[in-house]
Amino acid sequence: METTVRQFLLAILILISSSTNALTVEDEIYALQVAREYQIDFMTVTGVNAKKISTLERISHNLYQRIDFLKARVEAGETRYLLVNKSEFYMEVIDNGQIVVREKVIIGEPGRATPEFSDIIKYIVINPYWNVPYNLARKDVIPKINRIRNKFGIDQMYTSIDEGGYRFFNSDMEINPHDIDFSQYTLRSKLPFKVRQDPGSHNSLGLIKFVFPNKYNVYIHDTPRKGLFDRDERRFSSGCVRLQNPINLAAYLLNSGTSDILDMINNPDNSAKWIKIPEPLPIHIVDWTITVTDHGVILD
Known about the structure:
single chain, alpha+beta, L,D-transpeptidase catalytic domain-like
C-alpha cells in the first residue's frame, strides 16, 4: 500500500512540475497533504517546479487555517461574527453562513501593524471624541502642528488647531494652546499634557467608532480620509481598523435603518453618544494571505 501511495505521489509531483495544468489545484493540494503524511521530500524529485510547490504549500496552509477557524466557531456556537482579513483589506459580517455586511477596510501601516486577535464588539460611539494616545500625540499630532508653524506661521498653526478640533489638558484642566510653546517639543520629548480631538467631520475617528475593549487599544472606526479606500493595498492606519461605510455596520448591530443612524449623527449639539449593542458581536482579526474569489486564488 505504501509503495502504491509513493508511486502515486511521484506521478502527481511530475505532473505538477510540467507546464500543462493536468491536475486541479484540489488534486495538487491533496498530493502535498499525503506527501507530508508519508514524510516524502518532494523537492528531491527530478523536475519538480519548486515555485509551484511553494505556492501550493501556502494554499494548503491557508486552507487549514480557515478549517481550524470554522471548527472553532462551531465549537463556540458562533453563528454570527465579524471577520477582518488583513491581507484582503476587507471585513465581513457572517450571520448563519451568509455575508450580510461587507466593507473595505484600512489596516495598520508598517511598524504599526494591526494585531491579530479575537474579542467582542460591545458598544458603538456616535460622534466620538478622540483621546489621542500619548505616543501618537508625541509622534504625529505635535510634529504636524510644528510643521504647519514652520511652513505657514504661528497664526495658521492656531487656525489649524482650532479647525482640527484639538484641545489640550493637564489632568482635568484645559490648557489654552496659546500658552503652549509647541516648538520646544520633539519626537523624543515628554509631553506634559494630553491631547483630545472634539467630535466632528474633522475627527480622525470619523463619525462612528465600534468598541471592543482590548489590551491593544484597537477599535474599528470611520475616517474622514475616504480617498484612501480607492487604493488596492490599504495599510495607512496606526493600528486600528478604518471602515469605509460604518453606517451599514452600525445599522446591522442596532437592527436599525441607515436613516436612523444618520439622525443620531446629525443631532443638534454634535455630542458623543455611547450605545450598548443589544447583541454583542464576536470579532476576529486574522491574516489569511491567500484569498479565494469568484475569479480564482489571489496570493498576497
